Amino acid sequence: MSDTLVYKKGRIHDVVCKPLGKFLDERGWLTELFRSDELEPSVMPAMAYISMTLPGVARGPHEHVDQTDLFCFMGPSNFKVYLWDARPDSPSCGVKQVLYAGADAPMMVIVPPGVVHAYRNVGLESGIVFNAPNRLYAGEGKRETVDEIRHEELVDSPFQLD
User: Fold this and answer.
1) pLDDT tens digit string along 77-99?
2) Is the pTM of this model over 0.70?
3) Other Cβ atoms closer than 10 A to 58
4) Is residue 155 part of a domain?
5) Is residue 88 part of a domain?
6) Residue 72: which CATH number?
7) Other beta carbons within 10 Å of 153
8) Neighbours of 146 (CB within 10 A)
């Protein structure tokens, strides 16, 4: 399936990108990362975590069989986000989409199952990423197999970061 595809540039069906606004006042700022009244029930988060990525470092590419990720890129750095649609039944199968998100363009990105994804910190300082997936990592009580197909160490992977 995904190993034989040549990915072309475009927009991926079912990937949701939403700019995140900052509400400023004399105390600082506040951003709503997501609201339950704006999400489809199937992507409602089951957990949340934040990660810190050093400058120049990438996470991924990997994909999930059942899990949807809800990423929020706020800063203080910027990220290059890579997406590949490897879903054979998707109208955008074979499409690669690249986004820039973070301090200069705060953004929420919803990545459905079967969309291979990665991101690289392209800034000069450490960057923070918030993720609220709709599945628990390793299932209830961390007793299940992790829903992750990793592509980062495959020599001939079609999922290359530049």
Assistant:
1) 999 999 999 999 999 999 999 99
2) yes
3) 16
4) no
5) yes
6) 2.60.120.10
7) 6
8) 13
